[in-house]
Amino acid sequence: MFDKEGGTTVRNSIAVRRKQRQLSQAEVAVLTNVTRQTINAIENDKYDPSLTLAFELAACLGTTVDELFDFRGKRE
């Protein structure tokens, strides 16, 4: 949920939606012009995509950015 320092965290449903569309990480990578490793890192919450890539992923997976990513703001 929140990182150790109480900062923001973004979770995503890329893997679930990718599998629903029967796409591999490599196929999504080609469709969004990034590497398979990038898709893997995003799916595993190791990397937050740029805004442009987030929109490309959402379009590729037939959803919206809001549906694909779950943003949790800074803890108060």
From TrEMBL:
Membrane-spanning ranges: none
Family annotation (Pfam families): HTH_3
GO molecular function, one term: DNA binding
InterPro entries assigned to the protein according to its UniProt record, in alphabetical order: Cro/C1-type_HTH (IPR001387), Lambda_DNA-bd_dom_sf (IPR010982)
Keyword DNA-binding on entry: yes
Keywords per UniProt: DNA-binding
Domain HTH cro/C1-type: 14-68
SMART domains found in the cross-reference section: HTH_XRE
Protein name (record): Transcriptional regulator
Organism (species): Lactiplantibacillus garii
Lineage per the UniProt record: Bacteria, Bacillati, Bacillota, Bacilli, Lactobacillales
